[in-house]
Amino acid sequence: MAEVKLKKVKKVFPPDVVAVKDFDLHVKDKEFVVLVGPSGCGKSTTLRMIAGLEEVTEGEIYIDGRLVNDVPPKDRDIAMVFQNYALYPHMTAFENMAFGLKLRRVPKEEIERRVKMAAKMMEIEDILHRYPREISGGQRQRVAVGRAIVRNPKVFLFDEPLSNLDAKLRVQMRAELIKLHQRLGATMIYVTHDQVEAMTMGDRLVVMKDGEIQQVAEPLTLYEKPANKFVAGFIGSPPMNFIEGRLVREGETFYFLNPSLKVSILDRWKEKVASHLNKGVILGIRPEDIDLGGDLEGVVEVVETLGNEILLHVKIGEELVTLRTTPYKGKQRMGEKIRIKFPPERMHLFDQETEKSLLYT
């Protein structure tokens, strides 16, 4: 397996559409890295440049220490799994998995050994004789992954491979790919727009927006210490609540203040936020971090009952916030007045202009 390095990579589509810019990333050997972000953020373009399917406008890409900017895809020793499976309809599952090896003139016995090994790993041994039209979407995706495995490449590239599957099958295939990574000890780069998929699969996540990296970190670090408002809002479901206001000081205590609410700021954060006193800031707090009971009064506008959890949309003055609770903490109803609390240790603060975190940069 191998490490992958991208140095100041940029991609411009004619006439002047900048899809990716200033992209710096070091994927370590045997690491599972996920590129995640909304549609159009440049993640698939980045993956295609690593694969050699898109030309690099500026910058350098290295695979296993080798500069590959001018190396054709077939010589990069990578295997790519696409969103649409890309299986040959006139070939059986076995023939699809074996096709790349046949082109490389691998001996027949070795091809059979590799295909059977991959089929066992992906649990598709009993469908190797079938054609793509005769198997389900999930089985087709397993065949596509199996085809990548038999290549024994240095790097696996996955471009939204689960997006065509139903919700239950996506969860199952996520687990299969995680186990596959552990079994193979392979370097894998995975693209998805689904932040839940990214959080559950990646050793590290690369959050992208408008062709640029917003933050690279382990999943829990992104969740607990987002570098900016975009990352904070993108990671987590339901998304983080954001409220605009000012940072003020009364005596020795700092407060976040706007016409609808006033909440205290932890003393340990004073040094980090002092430069923003009397300036515009954005308070962020996740739905699961808001507590029932407290000194903030609100009115329940919407109740979403999801079985094991309940989402309450609560109006506090002019601000609407979402909080997550459980059926065991009472049954709130629309129009009911409730009291809630923003625990200071779970709050985030962002600069109103740059949207960068004041606490974790």
Quick synopsis:
This protein is of the alpha+beta class.
Describe the structure.
- With 361 residues, this protein is α+β, with helices and mostly antiparallel strands.
- The protein has 9 helices and 19 strands.
- It has helices at 43-51, 93-103, 108-122, 137-150, 167-184, 195-201, 219-224, 229-234, 270-273; strands spanning 4-13, 17-27, 32-36, 58-63, 66-67, 78-81, 155-159, 187-192, 204-209, 212-217, 241-250, 253-258, 261-264, 280-285, 291-305, 310-316, 319-325, 337-341, 348-351.
- The strands form 4 sheets. Strands 6-7-8-3-9-10 form a 6-stranded mixed β-sheet, with helices on both faces.
- Helix 5 (167-184) links the parallel strand 7 (155-159) and strand 8 (187-192).
Itemize the secondary structure elements and their pairings:
Elements: E1 4-13, E2 17-27, E3 32-36, H1 43-51, E4 58-63, E5 66-67, E6 78-81, H2 93-103, H3 108-122, H4 137-150, E7 155-159, H5 167-184, E8 187-192, H6 195-201, E9 204-209, E10 212-217, H7 219-224, H8 229-234, E11 241-250, E12 253-258, E13 261-264, H9 270-273, E14 280-285, E15 291-305, E16 310-316, E17 319-325, E18 337-341, E19 348-351
Parallel strand pairs: 3-8, 3-9, 6-7, 7-8
Antiparallel strand pairs: 1-2, 1-4, 4-5, 9-10, 11-12, 11-14, 12-13, 14-19, 15-16, 15-18, 16-17
